[in-house]
Design brief:
This protein is mostly helical. The chain has helices at 3-14, 40-50, 52-56, 75-92, 97-106, 115-125, 132-143, 154-161, 172-195, 206-212, 216-231, 241-257, 262-265, 268-284, 291-298, 304-313, 317-328.
């Protein structure tokens, strides 16, 4: 019996009846020989960690555009915080921690440079629309490995696609990530906003903080414990009504006071203009994109609009600024 088979047996004997067992996975689009050591969800996790799109997240905006401090979150640190929260919940509920972690690590692979500002810009310009959760699926199904994709299991892809608020994940592990994403960004965005002197802890509405806590540690503990308490031995991942309402209240407060704050978002208009300019330019100059993107249009019959979105969405903040400068900013010259 292989190590993988032993791990699968261990899952069957120790995990909850509501867990997604590796041996019962719906599989991949392209059949592969099983690994002797890792379960299918462990392989998916490893593939995501080792892919190029995952590494680029370290240079993509979370909330604050081009912050000067070293301690503000990026899209990568957000992803890692989501994964840690989700794993804690999954372990406590005896659900599949490997599946949970794979979904969490892949959920934001499709995010644009400059956070949601870039997403809004591409969605406005592309006639087919653009959303980061659908783009994350394109990354793992098409864009990675020069058009081959990562060939992830259906359960991981389902969790990635449905991590948004309106999503309906088909697994308990996907439901964990969906909630963990919100828990993570609400709390770390408060932390970053305090660091950026946009607000103070005492500015947060006490009608909510009296319920979920007056510090990041208290809020995280309250939310995570509440999910575990209310979801144990149940077929759903849920929070108690009063904790859920307090979390939504804090989230609404953040949208009004941070996510639209001119200090935090003062550069967004410039970022959107830059992304739109890049989109229009490459749509008119397809051959100036890297060969792997041109190939998607010529050999795989992908729509040009979609592939231009693929290229721009894959850019880091720094790379998009550099390409914009190359294309639209005059270069100083010297007469010798």
């Amino acid at each position: 019996m292989s190590i993988r088979e032993q791990l699968e047996d261990l899952e069957s004997s120790t995990l909850s009846e509501f867990a997604s067992l590796s041996k019962n996975s719906l599989g991949r689009d392209r059949e592969e020989k099983p690994c002797d050591i890792r379960t299918c969800y462990q392989r998916d996790r490893d593939r995501i960690i080792h892919c190029k799109a995952f590494r680029r997240l370290k240079h993509k905006t979370q909330v604050f555009l081009a912050p000067t401090g070293d301690h503000y979150r990026t899209r990568l640190t957000h992803t890692l915080e989501v994964a840690q929260i989700a794993r804690t919940i999954a372990k406590a509920l005896r659900l599949n921690e490997d599946l949970t972690e794979a979904i969490a690590l892949g959920h934001d692979l499709g995010h644009t440079p400059f956070g949601h500002a870039g997403e809004y810009a591409l969605n406005k310009e592309c006639s087919a629309g653009f959303s980061h959760f659908e783009q994350s699926i394109r990354v793992v199904e098409i864009l990675e490995k020069k058009g081959e994709g990562l060939n992830l299991t259906k359960e991981v892809r389902d969790g990635i696609l449905n991590h948004r608020t309106s999503g309906k994940p088909s697994t308990m592990e996907g439901k964990i990530v969906r909630l963990s994403d919100k828990i993570a960004y609400i709390n770390h965005d408060i932390d970053d906003a305090i660091r950026g002197r946009i607000l103070c802890e005492k500015d947060l509405p006490t009608e909510y903080t009296d319920i979920i806590g007056h510090s990041k540690k208290e809020r995280l503990n309250t939310m995570i414990y509440d999910i575990v308490k209310n979801s144990t031995d149940k077929s759903d991942i849920i929070m108690s009504p009063h904790i859920s309402e307090a979390m939504c209240g804090i989230r609404e407060y953040m949208f009004k006071n941070v996510y639209s704050n001119p200090i935090a978002k003062g550069e967004e208009k410039k970022a959107k203009t830059m992304i739109i300019s890049l989109y229009k330019y490459y749509l008119e100059n397809i051959n100036e994109m890297p060969e792997e993107y041109i190939m998607l249009i010529r050999e795989k019959n992908q729509l040009a609009e979609r592939v231009v979105c693929d290229y721009i969405a894959g850019m880091t903040d720094h790379y998009s600024v550099r390409k914009f400068n190359e294309l639209f900013v005059p270069i100083a010259w010297t007469l010798y």
